[in-house]
Amino acid sequence: MSTRPETLDFLLDQIGTLPQVRTRRMFGEYCVYLHEKPTAFVCDDQLVVKITDAGRTLLPQPVYGQPYPGAKAFCCGPMNGKTARHCAIC
Questions:
Q1: Cα separation of 90 and 76, whole Å?
Q2: What is the number of alpha carbons within 13 Å of residue 8 lying toward its C-beta?
Q3: Which residue has the higher pLDDT, 61 or 12?
Q4: 29: which of 10, 24, 43, 88 fits an S-S bond (Cβ 3.0–4.6 Å)?
């Protein structure tokens, strides 16, 4: 299953006002860049975010997973506005 275009549209509606946010299609899914650094992926309609100390503070009980087999652990969250904005700020 791949990410639906409307899922990416929803994410960009939530975080698009942050400076220097962009997405790029990669391997059939999407990478989210913040200040030209890859910070998250959208895979199978799910937001997976690079783990940082700031992120652990904002999401005290994160669920960890892999965006693809063999990847490092990322923080996974439901695709909703609150999670998207918090994860982007991390």
A1: 13
A2: 19
A3: 12
A4: 43
